[in-house]
Amino acid sequence: MVAAVRVAVAVLALAFVASVRAACVAPSGFDLTKLRNNGQDYKIPLVGANLAFNFCGPLVAPASATSCGDPINSCVTGTSGVLVSTAYSNWNNQAIFEVNGEIYYKVSLTNPARSMTVKLQCGQGTNTATKSDTEVDVVFYSNLVPCPAPPSKDKKKLSTGSILTIVFFVTLTVYFLLGAVYNHYRNNRSGVEMVPNLEFWQSLPGLIKEGFMFSTHCICRRDGTYTPVK
Questions:
Q1: Tens digit of pLDDT for each residue in 49-62?
Q2: What is the full DSSP assignment across the chain?
Q3: What is the pLDDT of residue 70?
Q4: Res 9: pLDDT
Q5: Is residue 101 within 8 Å of residue 120, measured between CB atoms?
Q6: What are the tens digits of pLDDT across the range 120-147?
């Protein structure tokens, strides 16, 4: 019987740890349980108050030491130890999200109702906290926090005109190469005669000149007169 109880307790403990771990993973995959301090809670001074908090679980300090009750994962007390605000370790009130690669850990507070948002910063720095009527904002530094990746420089995309130009010249090159090979091996031609449709390309400058002259002639004759119809 005792062995069965021990096994049940162990299973429940593992399930609890697994649920906490699953609830404390950022969208990018960073496990916030790495930041949990099981030795002592994180403490940051506020204006006229003190903040004690921990990640992914209740405070390490007993309720008698915080005056906030138990179990909770953050506590704000006045400088005289008077209770100001608490955040109960209810995982439904916990949220982990990211903005521009930076991780935020947010819990709901009670007595009075407000929220605590912890902004995680990579590297070393001084942890700071500010308090308002609705928010407690914390900036928390740790070498365990992954640094956000630098914003990727968007490569300039080719315009439609550029793509069409590239396709045109590639197609023209393939046309001349394949035509020259065909004329050389199929028609036994060499030199300039290897150019496919040689007569057309030789007459193209004259066709362009005639088209230009025709267009110029039509524009110059727009004098507003009409030829009478007989």
A1: 788 888 887 888 76
A2: -HHHHHHHHHHHHHHHHHHHHHHTB-TTS-BGGGG--SSS-EEEEETTEEEEE-SSS--SS-HHHHSS-SSEEEEEEETTS-EEEEEE--GGGEEEEEETTEEEEEEEEBTTTEEEEEEEEES----EEEE-SSEEEEEEEETTSPPPPPPPPPPPPPPHHHHHHHHHHHHHHHHHHHHHHHHHHHS---GGGGSTTHHHHHHHHHHHHHHHHHHHHHHHT-SS--PPP-
A3: 60
A4: 35
A5: no
A6: 999 999 999 988 878 889 999 999 999 8
31 close to 25: Cβ distance less than 8 angstroms: yes
Q: Confidence class of residue 15 from pLDDT cuts 50, 70 and 90?
A: very low
CA 28 to CA 25: how far, in whole Å? 8
Q: Which long-range contacts (CB under 8 A, 24 or more apart) does 18-22 make?
A: 19/91, 20/56, 20/57, 20/91, 21/56
Structure tokens belonging to residue 88: 């109960």
* Longest CA–CA separation in the chain, Å: 122
pLDDT (average), residues 91-110: 82
How many Cβ atoms are within 10 Å of 171's Cβ, its own excluded?
A: 10
Rounded to an integer, what distance in angstroms lies between the CA atom of residue 85 and that of residue 129? 14
Which residues contact residue 23 at a Cβ distance below 8 angstroms, ignoring those fewer than 6 apart?
56, 91, 94, 96
Q: What is the pLDDT of residue 8?
A: 43
**Cα separations in angstroms, 60 against 65, 72, 75, 99:** 10, 9, 11, 29
